[in-house]
Amino acid sequence: MDGDLGDFLRSRRARIQPGDVGLNSYGRRRVPGLRREEVAQLAGVSVDYYIRLEQGRGPSVSDAVLDAIARVLRLDGTEHTYLRTVARPGPRTATPAARQRVRPGLRLLLDTLDRAPAFLLGRRMDVLAWNALGNAVVGFSRMPAAARNMPRQTFLEPAARELYPDWPAVAAETVAYLRLDAGLHPDDRQLATLVGELSMKSEDFRRLWADHQVKAKTYGVKRIDHPVVGALTLPYETLGVPGDPDQSLVVYTPEPGSETAERIALLASWAAAPQAHDGEENAGDASGLRA
């Protein structure tokens, strides 16, 4: 995943037209968007300095320079943070990733959410644990352990395009969040393997990954066409886990009294597994949703 900084800056330059930043367009442009010298001019740095930065050859760059470039390229808060991360990566440590573990208290917390589908995500958007309703909605327990990963489920499972009526938007958000994780962990071998697998097997993933979008999935609405109860409109909240910045709790929050809430209640009474589970305990478990 080397070259992320240059690729990211080039993709952001392509979004901005000269007129958007008060410049006159002159000459034939071989590529869309701003030229490198225009970004350098607007950011108040030399052209050579900016070129070396975009090529990954520059010296340690200051907050002031990165802030100026973010302003010129009109980066949002998530993109700005990503820029700082990839421009000044931490020490290179290609050691094997530690096994992801779920604290007992988090499993108990999932159990208490008996009216809201919920699941726990870890690094690379691996699904680490879920409650009964989360299983009833998505069917985690029916997946092989290696397939319990949201990017794999989105791009390699054919049924995902039927499960998510807004599949193109879901796919784009998934890749943008995975790209954010890649910026934080540039030496993650398992992540590199995942990106390579998805790139080989999915043309849609290759296209979206090359676009270099970054986005945090903090909240939103996901529509699901469930094979048993039909259409679900599910607002969601993504909550950080104190003590483990690599884990997040995703909770679907159906509007009380809505048709979706009624269908979720039906699922709750129908779901076979009342306990929260993790991947280790259910590697071969098929006791969840049998749609």
Describe this structure in words.
Strand 4 and strand 5 (244-252) form a beta hairpin. Mean pLDDT is 85; it is low at 280-291. This protein has helices spanning 4-15, 36-43, 47-54, 63-72, 77-87, 104-112, 132-138, 150-156, 160-163, 167-184, 189-201, 203-210, 259-270; strands at residues 118-121, 127-130, 219-226, 230-241, 244-252, 277-278. The chain has a six-stranded antiparallel beta sheet with strand order 3-4-5-1-2-6, with helices on both faces. The two termini are 38 Å apart. With 291 residues, the chain is α+β, with helices and mostly antiparallel strands. The protein is elongated, with a radius of gyration of 22 Å. Helices cover 44% and strands 13% of the residues. It contains 13 helices and six strands.
The low-confidence runs, each spanning 5 or more residues with pLDDT under 50, are 280-291
Query: Structural class, from helix and strand content?
Result: alpha+beta
Tally of DSSP helical segments: 13
Task: Tell me the Rg in angstroms.
Answer: 22 Å
Strand order of the largest sheet: 3-4-5-1-2-6
**In which range does the helix fraction lie?**
40-55%
Oligomeric state as shown: single chain
Number of strands: 6
Which descriptors apply to this entry?
single chain, 291 residues, alpha+beta, 6-stranded antiparallel β-sheet, 13 helices
